[in-house]
Amino acid sequence: MISDLKLLELFVRAARLGAIGKAGAEFGLSPTSATQRIQALESEVGAQLLHRTTRSVSVTLEGERLLKHAERIFETVQDAMLDVSGENQVLRGTLRLAGPASFGRKYIAPFVTEFLSMHPGLTVQLHLSDTVFDIVDNGFDCAIRLGALESSSLKAQKLSSCPRILVAAPDYLKAMGTPQTPQDLVHFDCVIRDALQNWRFKGPHGEEDAVKVAGRFVTNLAEGVTEAAISGFGIARKCTWEVAEHLESGELVTVLDRYSVAPEWNIHFMRPPGGIEPLRVRQFRSFIKQKMAQVPALGQ
């Protein structure tokens, strides 16, 4: 356990400045005294934290690990001070946000830029990817996730529902016919994402059904599924927000309207467990929930 947080603070500044002497000067220390304190910290943690040369310093692998935790500690302290001082504080610092790629491009990124325009003292780092990763280990403040909520230590708040439907091009259905039950899908081409061929449904009376579908077009890209369906390559399973404009234009029509796609999907705001929710996170969570309530293609 580190007995003096001032040593930790000095290490963070030395790592960021790339010079122990410059960091020491910020604390009123001579270069020699600053170096001795960094050495004391290294002795306390039992690892070399900085590589030293005559001109600069660089962070070791162990130092990078400590640096990530240390910065989070000081951010938490700052967040606690802001929380105590009230809601009317100007938002500052960096909001680190993760989200899914397609949904992020269509909705999250525009919402983020609007939020930034309201808070000129704030910076946002937005990472969009369909890969689900540990936001705590990767230093993110929060994430927006689509799908069925899995067991997790993260705190979750539902932002909206995310209905899924089956769609196809009218010309495809005119040529091939229209399925009446999920089991009929075995006689149709389906457009498949990521080889997810086992499709589940809930019937009008709550009965569950499942079918293994097949098709000539398989892709890892959500937009690719939509384009293939529009081009007449089969029936696709899509979120309503992905295809709303194509349904309105008539490029796509819904299929199996009496059945709902299972499991039910929702959109959740996720944040690390415990601790104080930073003011920037709390205000962004409230903002984006309000914005999503205004999107017609999303349920509530």
Automatic annotation (TrEMBL):
Keywords: DNA-binding, Transcription, Transcription regulation
GO MF annotation terms: DNA binding; DNA-binding transcription factor activity
InterPro entries: LysR-type_TF_proteobact-type, LysR_HTH_N, LysR_subst-bd, WH-like_DNA-bd_sf, WH_DNA-bd_sf
All copies of domain HTH lysR-type, residue ranges: 1-60
Protein family membership: Belongs to the LysR transcriptional regulatory family.
PANTHER family assigned to the protein according to its UniProt record, in alphabetical order: HTH-TYPE TRANSCRIPTIONAL ACTIVATOR TTDR-RELATED, HTH-TYPE TRANSCRIPTIONAL REGULATOR
Protein name in the entry: DNA-binding transcriptional regulator, LysR family
